Protein 1
Amino acid sequence: MSTDTSIKDPAAGTERAERPQARLSDVVIRFAGDSGDGMQLTGTQFTNTSALVGNDLSTLPDFPAEIRAPAGTLPGVSAFQVRIADYDIHTPGDAPDVLVAMNPAALKTNIGDLKRDGILIVNTNEFSKRNLVKAKYEHNPLEDGSLDGYRVYPVELTRLTREALADLELDNRSRDRCKNFFALGMCYWMFSRPLDNTIAWLEKKFAAKPILAEANVKALKAGYNYCDITGVFQNRYEVEPARLAPGLYRNINGNSALSLGLVAASRRSGLPLFLGSYPITPASTILHEMARYKNFGVTTFQAEDEIAAVCAAIGAAFGGSLGVTTTSGPGLALKSEAINLAVMTELPLVVCNIQRGGPSTGLPTKTEQADLLQALFGRNGESPLAVVAAASPSDCFDAAIEACRIALTHMVPVVLLSDGYLANGSEPWRVPAVEDLPDLRVEHASNPEGFAPYRRDPKTLARPWAIPGTPGLEHRIGGLEKEDVTGNVSYDPDNHQRMVELRAAKVARIADELPPLEVDGEPGGRLLVLGWGSTLGAITGAVNLARERGLQVSRLHLRHLNPLPNDLEEILGRFDRVLLPEMNTGQLALVLRGRYLVDVKTLSKVQGRPFTRGEILAEIESMLEA
Amino acid sequence: MATAPPLTRKDFQSDQEIRWCPGCGDYAILKGLQTVLPELGIPREKIVVISGIGCSSRLPYYMETFGFHSIHGRAPAVATGLKLTRPDLDVWVITGDGDALSIGGNHLIHALRRNVGIKILLFNNRIYGLTKGQYSPTSELGKKTGSTPFGSLDAPFNPLALALGAGATFVARTVDIYQKHLVEVLRQAAAHQGSAFVEIYQNCNIFNDRAFAYMTDKDNRDEQAVYLEHGKPLIFGNERDKGLRLAGTELEVVELGTGGASEADCLVWDAHRSSPNLAWLLAQALPPRFPTPLGVLRSVETEPLEQAVIEQIERAIDRQGNGSLETLLHAGDTWTVS
């Protein structure tokens, strides 16, 4: 193997060997390494550059709950999968075509997913006896033939990076921390990506420490040139820009999109936004992002606990703000009593639950959809509220606006369900025009004439939002049962029955204003694949594959989980069978069976990972063969 | 705006029937609050009374202001969210010893450490009333109640010491039946900018009657209590013949007069000392060794949280301009598909 790694400007291309350039339509790359190896960063850079190239893309970060598990061990492996394509894709890909393994532990935990004949780039310098033991390898996999069947590219990543940075005043530890950029440079060469975006990013990130910017840029270029000069890879690939709908795009992850959706809802409603939150994985980055938007009048409050976070949001809502709280499953459990206070006091409140694997602390960094029943029913008494779900990273923007719209127009708490996969996964987002966003302006009650705190809007059944500071509207609300209209405390039996029914009717009426559901494919037939939340991509991909194979299958995805759309029952009735993939053991299926007496078939996956297209396709095929 | 006629106590009475037990100390506290609020010159609609759960927490229903009867222990959190977003409002929290110190202990200490501009009135009757008489976190050790038939085993909280420990900037104690004293303390609490914490000894004549009789019975009133008055020496006793003196790092009771100490030896009370150390000593002054201190232990102004929050937002707007949604959505690396 040639060891010429002299740095050259890739653009100059003085002695570039011309190598065949193959066009790929679709490729899945996974970067895997130790938690300290910067794999999330590497993957994000590859993603952002691919977005600027114009590819469609979808990402799947996968990292441990431990910030730094012991180096080199299996639990410490952090991975980032990205799929890039020249067409409209829906998932981060079932199995990687390319795996970059920075150490034996990363190889061990990820090799099982790599496609047969897939490309494997390994950092051979990390395959020491000690590291092999840490990864629980008895034999060196690079030597025992277990990797036959893959296209293995052993690269001395650590040594080559050190050599490339030999002339910089850095210790070896600092040099070694640049090896992920050497690997990234290799991938940039292999997939014909430009380096300038990442170079600009490094120079900005390390503006205060120019030597680190220089080191990482050097490592990036060295990796690129290493491929260019040595001819280590037989092939170079090109993935053309995707033919997406015209418009301005940016790459965005779910938590960022959700944050922007909240800010947009605040601006479109004219209400200041108050976010009460307590740090919890995988929701915390929403708090971080919102805390930066002070110049949008956003107040963020890191509360002493989950309960205080939601209570403060309720207090803010009482005062006339758009009150929001963000959390994950364990936090939603703690908030349940306070959410019920918002149910009883009929205040607008948006509760964003970024679901993770449960029960209890569960799998903090892994994804699941198992909080649906908690969101629907996890409170004492008859406690109806609205539940909406986001279906893709960029859809978190629209879902957040829809959650705020419902809360504000119906004076009701809304649970917005996202999950770890959407939170951290990213995709290109066509940026909407501000004027196309819904108008969420609301009016606070102001006229004392005939005012009563529970006198309802005849259409929506919403009560007036009468905020402190309004003369003549002084009134008291609370968690005790209210007398209809007056809002006074009432223990009257008939009144309680009426109020329970009114609260339910108010939520049910939300469905009256929803647009008709759109079935993808034939409006009726043998099989409908139904979904909600983050399974959208995998279901869409699987249904499209099934159609390519000549199967007739339709697809429907739900945004609103409470109330359910009015036309859902009729649509379900048009199909012989309904398949419902869920990352739980059948929670929506339970609701649909109970509600509509429909025989929904559950496809369950609770492994902390999203469905693959293949898993759903196999089920579709088996159901249609039966 | 034309000047409205001054408000009276009656203006703060709601049309709701009061449902506390006859003889409950809560009536006197309600009356005290309804006496102070009209004096403040704040329109009724700008006043919000927020409570948790318990007998005391029914108070908002009886006030002709905005009111929020929230859930157990959480009133300081609800009030914090309201005050941070609506600093123009005058926000009062009504709570009890179980609500504030047991289930809501966390919210109480955090509200105090943050110095949010809310007034917290803790009705301390040393018992759970609404759940029919279990011991509370302020019940004395050995208390026999429905849930402790053989006597309670866990030591009580000292609410004032807890508040001081949490960094409270205004800490005071008063008694339900001392209407004049109660009103004066509430007046000072109302004038405080940051968090104000007032412990109010409140008699529950059903489940814990005479809990404070050791000091409220006529013969004991001056013997068992010392009234803190800013700038005045700490003197007490039926004959004003006793005082509190600093002995090293502790307080001691001294006899005044012939052969004893003089007034000049007694600690002169300064509620505005920035150090909470002397207030801490007073908070720890417990019967039977000491008279019970009544009045303002600490009153120190620092910037309330809501003000700091607003200033941070204003600075951000000054620096970055009022946020444009258009610009925000288009931020970061973008590309155009045509």
Protein 2
Amino acid sequence: MWDLESLVAWKGPQLVRLARALLRDPHQAEDVVQDVLATCVLKWSRIESVDDPSAYLNRMVVNAVTSLRRRPWRREQVSDPADLPDLAVPDAADEHAERRRCLALLRRLPDRQRVTLVLRLYEGMPDEEIADLLDCSTVTVRSNAHRGLATLRRLIAEEGTDRA
Amino acid sequence: MPDDRDVEDLLRSALERDVRTGAVDESALTTGTRTRIRRLHRRRRVTWAVATLAALAAVPLTVQALPDGAVRTRPAASATATEPEPTAATADPTASTPTATPRGTPATAPGVPMTPLPAAPLPATPLPTTAPADPDAVAYDVPDLPGLVAALPAGQVLLLDLGQYAKNPTVSGQACGGSEIEPPQIAGRQWGYAEEDSNRLDQTSVDVVVTGWAPGTGPGAFGHLVANDSRTCGFSDDLTRRTVDVPGADETWAARWQTDGTPVTAGAARAGDLVVGVTVSNPGPEGDADVARVLTAAVADLRGSGLAATGS
């Protein structure tokens, strides 16, 4: 059995950062990770039997995030403005601001596109694994990634136009 | 207009440099996780109790103090739904698979440094004169109790260690309300043991609570337990008072009761300003002796830690 403090020190920050990247509202990240860590503490005897507990915990976070969003996905409208977060998009005055702006725009993406891009680019997850996690085909994964990047391109271009 | 590759590079850079390095409050994460563990633990107990009613079998329902002081019996949002199906460890003898470790000795995941925890009882810590300002802070850590572990009924395995926390019932089985704990509880720790990590209804389980009270208030806190008159935590079941002999203790208390048909025997002992409560659910024929033995070992552990120096 893990001591909670050790578990948090080992995986807590990494899981929170992953959840922040995955979630449209990054403030939910801590809640999601707390649920995952609590389950981990109580079920360690099961989790210790897996090949890679670290990857297993990552997957628990992804599952928690996708479970959180599963129902809205089924009725989601890609461009539903009501579904967009009220986030300020910073000016791209410098490189750091440009990255922050990119992250803010990422959160405007429909959930499946955003989660797919994060799993690909942040977790380095292969499409097959993403498809398994999101319960879809690899074709859909590739489609979501492509559409996500295209949407980001468009949003970035629109932001540039608005500022000009 | 940027192409897909430009956007991908920018996004990857943003994720790597801004998300992967983002600050995380580990203390808040630990506190929040501990709260959820309590909820899950309580839900497990509630589930067991409901099943007990249906099966006329036995597992106790224990309500514990929450960080916000409220008593909740509504199950928390299911965290278990997030669990992926585990992949069984390979038979590769070179594979590095963490194993369960005793308390205080965390497993080391492959390639990930772990923070070592104290394995030995902590040295005596001067007690503060007032309760800590942070409602979740503890004045000192309750150490591991190796003697207690050795004195448990045979076959008991650790299921739960709630860590350092200062809002506990004195004895597991008490129901706690939202009032401030009075006198101030300044330290505490709970452990849960059972024959196995399962919902088997007829197994014997042991819950242990150690509470540390503000200097000089241990006798008062114990008095609330004896009189069952605390406004914070108390028993709602009808108790049959017992006696228990615990060498080394300043005071003792013992009782039996039933929770939803589950027989429970429990005892508590005070060592200075520390109180240890032991609750055995589904006790065997030696249940009273088990409680006495575990309490005696716990008191010896606590005396040995030096933390019980006051309040005698």
